[in-house]
Task: inverse folding
């Protein structure tokens, strides 16, 4: 689904100017500009913008990662004094990804590609681990996304009624939007409509968590959520629409959070019973999902089915290509090579060890927030913790219909880092607070 843009330098003058300004501010101003730079590059600049040097793609967000670590070195801002267990798992996940993908494809280009992917994962994850260190940091970056939704909404609205993508001026995204079943599929600065929809879907619960707080006004929260939902609708993609609907159901359980454990057991038990009484595997239900028309439910069902059926082919290191899994079926020319399922993609590109590490990282992070939501020390953050849980749940729902790339990679690892930091820092670390002051990091917010 990603655009064929690898190994091609693509720079628009406006994009380069924005990048230059942001990197200067990032290096020489306070740490708020790390968050501001990330949000602007994620929401408003095409992920296809890149500089290719010796076959190595430096996307603008990768350049942001490099400059952020340069800032850490120059300003001595590294504060992680020990590694959390998930930190070790993320490092191991990156190593396994490089090892399995390179060995599987046995080429220098495979090594370069896997190093780039690992750099995205590990680099972004530890930036957020290092800088999203307290309640104010976490709510600040969410606030920036909430404000960005209001700014970006008119561009998506314009694209939905004209079919013209204004962000094409940056390059890397089509000038004319895709159309499916008569519906314009808006993508803005994102590499694909489904990525645009999925991106804003996972942010909706986080913005919701600001309701009736003094962080931002309820009017901004309301219109930010409405803007995000409309952007998801403009993407004309069933996966994020289904996911955000499930997310709202999850948010609706906030009033019954004391019965969360019983509700979870009931839901899991229902799925088990459903599997026992169905003639087909439970993922057969994916065939029935077509919210916007023209969805590829059968393709997604068949991909999972063949992944399970042909487990010996990918189990150890992954598999070079899954095209042949679709032979004999009436499928697009790409066959089953398009891995539109995150779990399948993890196994097919890295084998069982990569898949298991990903699952352990995700569910360990989820479990951390499950525990913290009942912690009396976090009584003033109940809605934020519930919003984070709902956001993770939306990620989980997205995984069944899309493999993350572009901006989704970074927003996912930001979410995982937030979970780990909530346990690691406990939001109440006096020694860490003193270290902030010592390093000159405690300064007035740019947007308060």
Result:
């Amino acid at each position: 689904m990603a655009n064929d843009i690898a190994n091609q330098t693509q720079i628009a003058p406006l994009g380069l100017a924005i990048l230059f300004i942001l990197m200067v501010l990032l290096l020489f101003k306070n740490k708020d500009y790390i968050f501001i730079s990330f949000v602007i590059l994620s929401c408003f600049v095409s992920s296809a913008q890149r500089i290719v040097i010796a076959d190595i793609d430096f996307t603008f967000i990768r350049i942001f990662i490099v400059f952020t670590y340069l800032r850490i070195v120059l300003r001595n801002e590294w504060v992680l004094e020990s590694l959390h267990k998930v930190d070790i798992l993320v490092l191991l996940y990156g190593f396994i990804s490089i090892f399995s993908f390179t060995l599987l494809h046995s080429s220098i280009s495979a090594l370069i590609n896997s190093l780039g992917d690992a750099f995205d994962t590990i680099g972004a994850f530890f930036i957020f681990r290092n800088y999203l260190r307290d309640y104010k940091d976490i709510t600040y970056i969410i606030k920036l996304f909430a404000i960005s939704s209001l700014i970006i909404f008119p561009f998506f609205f314009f694209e939905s009624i004209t079919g013209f993508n204004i962000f094409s001026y940056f390059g890397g995204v089509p000038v004319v939007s895709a159309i499916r079943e008569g519906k314009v599929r808006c993508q803005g600065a994102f590499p694909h409509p489904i990525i645009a929809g999925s991106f804003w879907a996972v942010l909706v619960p986080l913005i919701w968590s600001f309701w009736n707080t003094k962080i931002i006004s309820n009017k901004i929260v309301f219109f930010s959520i409405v803007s995000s939902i409309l952007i998801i609708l403009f993407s004309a993609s069933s996966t994020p629409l289904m996911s955000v609907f499930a997310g709202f159901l999850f948010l609706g359980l906030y009033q019954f959070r004391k019965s969360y454990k019983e509700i979870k057991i009931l839901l899991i038990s229902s799925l088990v019973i459903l599997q026992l009484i169905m003639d087909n595997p439970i993922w057969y239900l994916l065939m029935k999902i077509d919210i916007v028309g023209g969805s590829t439910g059968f393709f997604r069902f068949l991909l999972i089915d063949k992944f399970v059926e042909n487990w010996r082919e990918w189990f150890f290191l992954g598999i070079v290509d899954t095209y042949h899994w679709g032979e004999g079926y009436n499928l697009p020319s790409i066959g089953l090579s398009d891995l539109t399922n995150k779990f399948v993609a993890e196994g097919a590109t890295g084998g069982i060890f990569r898949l298991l590490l990903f699952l352990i990282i995700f569910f360990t992070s989820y479990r951390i927030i499950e525990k913290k939501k009942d912690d009396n020390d976090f009584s003033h953050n109940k809605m934020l913790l519930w919003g984070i849980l709902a956001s993770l749940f939306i990620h989980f729902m997205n995984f069944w219909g899309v493999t993350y790339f572009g901006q989704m990679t970074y927003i996912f690892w930001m979410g995982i880092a937030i979970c780990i930091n909530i346990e690691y820092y406990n939001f109440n670390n006096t020694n860490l607070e003193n270290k902030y002051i010592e390093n000159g990091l405690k300064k007035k917010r740019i947007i308060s």
Summary: Residues 93-272+334-428 form one domain.
